[in-house]
Design a protein that fits this description.
Layout lengths: L30 H14 L3 H15 L5 E5 L5 H10 L5 E6 L2 H10 L6 E5 L10 E7 L7 H14 E12 L4 H13 L4 H11 L8 H10 L4 E8 L2 E7 L1
This protein binds ligand GEK.
Length: 243
Amino acid sequence: MPTQDNRGSNPPLDEVYRRPREQIVDFAFDESVAEVFQDMIRRSVPGYETVVACTGLIAARYLPAGGTCYDLGCSLGASSHAVLRAVGERDCRVVAIDGSEAMIERARALATGEGRIEWLVGDIRQVEMHSAHVVMLNFVLQFLPLEDRLPLLTRIREALVPDGVLLLAEKLAASPEVEEVHLDFKRANGYSELEIAQKRTALENVMRIDSLEAHDERLTAAGFGEVETWFRCLNWGAMIARP
Ligand code: GEK
C-alpha cells in the first residue's frame, strides 16, 4: 500500500511572497495560496509528508467499514486521501471541511474518482459532527482564535464514538535555536530572506502557537483521557488523543 500522495505530483511553485510588497496584509487561504499550497506546505513544515502519511495509517486502525472520519481544515484533502489509501477498499466516509472555497474547489478537482469524500465549505467551529470514529485536525487549530480552541476540542470529544480518536498536528512553541533551525529548513528549501520575512509578517495576526504542555492541558480540559505525542520534528508535532 503506497503511503505517499501522487496527486498533483508536480504542483506549481510557491512564489506568493517572492517579490517585495509595499504592504503586507494578513495571510489568507485564497486562490493564490490554494494554487501553490502543496509546494508551500511541503517546503514550510518539516515532516509534513510523514505526518500526513502516518495520520492515514493511524486513522485506518480506528475506522471500521461504515465508519466516519472528519478532516477539519482539510485544505486540498491530503489527510483525507492518506486515510483512504490506508483503508484500501473499505467502505467508509470522510467528511472534509475547509473555510476556503478556493481550497475545496481545488480539492474536489484533485479527487476525481474518489467517491468516499464529502467536501464541504464551512467553518469548523460551526460544523455538525456526530458518531465520529476519527477526527483529524492537522495544522489548523493554530489558526483559530485562542478562545475558540477549547470549545472546538470539547465538541470533537463529544462527537467521538467511545473508541474514537482525535489526530492533531500543530506548530509548537520552541526555543529560539529550534525556531532558527526551522528557518534554516525554509532557506534550504529555497525560500529567500524576503519571502520568509514577508510571510512571517503576514502570519503575525493569524497564527498563534501553543506549547505542547498547553495542548496537553487543553485536551485534558476538553475531556480526553489519554494524550500521546507520536511525532516531533523541530517546532512541529503530532498528537493522538483518546477519550
Ligand atoms: C493538510 N489539514 O494538508 N474553518 C474551516 N477551515 C479553516 C478554519 C476555520 N475556522 N481556519 C482555518 N481553516 C491540511 C492543512 S492548512 C495548514 C491545513 C497551513 C483552514 C484554512 O482554510 C486552511 O486550508 C487550513 O485550515 C490550514 O494536512 O496552511 O499551515
